[in-house]
């Protein structure tokens, strides 16, 4: 019988892992199923552009996986039973169970409202394609009236990019960026200065040392007593992972990320691998890798090497887990590439302007092409046979 590999999630990490496993393992021995709630591949790092009004491609997953023999199951993951090795899913037909021998957990992350009153009900976000499109439609309505106040809460990379993209694409709107402390404190001084100049150029109002206590339909209440009028509040103040891993009994951190060994294999369930935002792993600098698309690529590559190596009886290659830089878009014509040192601190050196834009655009293009066409990027073309079905891959009766 074939070894069943099930990949949960088809974002940056999940789609990359599934496609590369399909191109490196023989279909005579393996059967790969990808479970994803949506039928399209979402370029999550570009959703702020989509919300601002840009066109961002979302190729069908059937196109992404064309020629791979991957089975695509459009369904929402509701639970995992790692003892029985089954995944429970829900879809339009009611759902069911999917059995696995090797599971790749790549369910990613979602917006974290930090229990702020009204944030879930009244704030927009750019954490998924549907939510970005809802924000876009709302901004279209504000643009149509020739006015509107947009508050972006959170000055992390997502908040900065969202504020600058909206301000550039929709100059009729008044955009404010709320930071809990000093704006972009993790950037080098020169990069922070460049960011401030960009905000001034785009007429973005920066409100520092501002905590939000509550979000209402037309205003935001701040901890210092200030009330800010808002026609669209965009929440970017942090991300959280799905509770499914913790509920399943997998060993996780306090925030729900899966604990793994150096090869992205669960420390509690050796037939489960975790990649992307879902995993807690330590990089080459001895610090936790951040939640970003770069980490998705590195953890995904390591999981691929581990799964292929173990199933085919070959030595497992160790992929360097590094955190080199942050690439920040400041609209379509400006940006910052902030280099990171071995202590995960910003180096004084950074790249700015159109050169930073070209670098980030190249990285995004390469990530998409590497997912859809891995053989074109030096990936092995030969599909390897399994050495043997692992002894601990006892079958369940789930289909």
TrEMBL record:
Keywords: FAD, Flavoprotein, Oxidoreductase. Gene3D superfamilies: 3.50.50.100. One of its GO terms (biological process) is aerobic electron transport chain. The keyword Flavoprotein applies. GO terms for molecular function: NAD(P)H dehydrogenase (quinone) activity. InterPro entries: FAD/NAD-bd_sf, FAD/NAD-binding_dom, NADH-Q_oxidoreductase. It comes from the Bacteria. Signal peptide: none annotated. Residues 373-399 are annotated as: Disordered. Residues 4-284 form the FAD/NAD(P)-binding domain. Its cofactor is FAD. Pfam families: Pyr_redox_2. Belongs to the NADH dehydrogenase family. This is NADH dehydrogenase FAD-containing subunit. It comes from Jiangella mangrovi. The lineage of its organism: Bacteria, Bacillati, Actinomycetota, Actinomycetes, Jiangellales.
């Amino acid at each position: 019988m074939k070894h069943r590999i099930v990949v949960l999630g088809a974002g940056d990490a999940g789609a990359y892992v599934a496609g590369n496993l399909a191109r490196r393992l023989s279909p005579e021995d393996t059967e790969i199923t990808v479970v994803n709630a949506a039928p399209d591949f979402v370029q999550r790092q570009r959703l702020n552009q989509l919300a601002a009004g840009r066109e961002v491609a979302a190729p069908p997953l059937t196109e992404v996986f064309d020629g791979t023999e991957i089975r695509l199951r459009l369904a929402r993951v509701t639970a995992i039973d790692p003892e029985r090795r089954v995944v429970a899913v829900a879809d339009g037909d009611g759902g069911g169970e999917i059995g696995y021998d090797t599971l790749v957990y790549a369910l990613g992350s979602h917006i974290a409202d930090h229990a702020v009153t009204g944030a879930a009900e009244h704030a927009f976000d750019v954490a998924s394609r549907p939510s970005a499109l809802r924000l876009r439609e709302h901004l279209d309505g504000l643009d149509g009236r020739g006015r509107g106040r947009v508050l972006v809460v959170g000055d992390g990379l997502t908040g900065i990019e969202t504020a600058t993209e909206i301000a550039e694409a929709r100059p009729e709107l008044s955009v404010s960026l709320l930071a809990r402390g000093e704006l972009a404190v993790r950037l080098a001084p020169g990069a922070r200065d460049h960011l401030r100049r960009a905000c001034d150029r785009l007429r973005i109002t920066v409100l520092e040392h501002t905590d939000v206590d509550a979000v209402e339909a037309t205003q935001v209440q701040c901890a210092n007593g200030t009330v800010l009028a808002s026609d669209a509040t965009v929440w970017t103040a942090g991300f959280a992972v799905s509770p499914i891993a913790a509920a399943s009994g997998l060993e996780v951190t306090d925030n729900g990320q899966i604990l793994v060994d150096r090869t992205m294999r669960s420390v509690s369930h050796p037939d489960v691998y975790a990649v992307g935002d879902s995993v807690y792993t330590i990089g080459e600098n001895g610090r936790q890798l951040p939640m970003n698309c770069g980490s998705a690529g590195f953890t995904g590559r390591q999981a691929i090497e581990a799964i292929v190596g173990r199933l085919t009886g070959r030595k497992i290659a160790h992929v360097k887990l590094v955190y080199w830089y942050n690439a920040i878009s400041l609209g379509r014509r400006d940006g910052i590439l902030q280099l990171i040192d071995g202590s995960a601190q910003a180096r004084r050196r950074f790249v700015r302007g159109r050169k930073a834009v070209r670098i980030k655009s190249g990285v995004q293009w390469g990530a998409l092409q590497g997912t859809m066409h891995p053989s074109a990027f030096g990936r092995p073309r030969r599909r390897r046979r399994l050495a043997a079905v692992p002894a601990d891959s006892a079958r369940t009766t789930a289909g």
